[in-house]
Design a protein that fits this description.
The chain is mainly α. It is built from ten helices and five strands. The longest helix has 28 residues.
Length: about 260
Amino acid sequence: MQIGNIESFKHLSQFKDTRDFNNNIEQWMLDIKGSFTKAELVALKRLIRFSAKVAGICTAKIGTIVSATHKAKGIGISRSTFKRMTIKAKNLGLVTTIETTRKNGSKSSNVYIFNRFYEQPEPSKEDKLNQPKTSNLSKANNQTNNKRKTDGFYKQNEIGQNTTLDASFTSEKVPMNFTDFVRNFYDDNSIIEEYWKLVNISAYKHDITENITETAIKAFKVLVRKIKFGKVNNVYGYYYAVLNKKFRRKYLVDLFNDVWDSK
């Protein structure tokens, strides 16, 4: 992606306006503030300030942001501190970064995209996730049409005829096999759609267009396993981090293959 005026990235914003952005940041900070050092918080707050013109989007260079902390009263930070902060923010699901290039093809500054705050599922949902309906995860790939019907796609009357279409189905933008798999752990379709939003963001970030659903399901299996061991505090943040790792690996493999084929 080529760098341009910040207005050209307005479509990437996930917020209605600056107020909506600030409200989400307040929720995020209540949840993850303790993950950052004092200096890293200075870096994060400065990045947030630079993301006010277009709510949740920043195209400023690292040097510009770092320099601003030295001009302000308080702690001035280093480039390495800023980079450590962004790594933590990405792993927690707070920020997504997209690398940009200039017209001559050289690397330019990153675009920083703040993500909406994803609330933790209700306790009853977490209980369902810790005690899945199907013990063998691989069975989720062999769901039948009967499974889809009993999960709410159609309500049937006593004589077995389809009546009205139930509202408890996921958006048509979410692949059926992803829906079927995640529904083994969550009955709430809005939660399934939130997970798929993270898949889309991560895939776009790494320029991945093939086998997205397959990778998304593999990443969800990793999430389920970690939850069973009690090692996940923020399920959405952890899932997003796993997606980034898997899509990044796929991107590098595809890049290597393209280079090798061109020789």
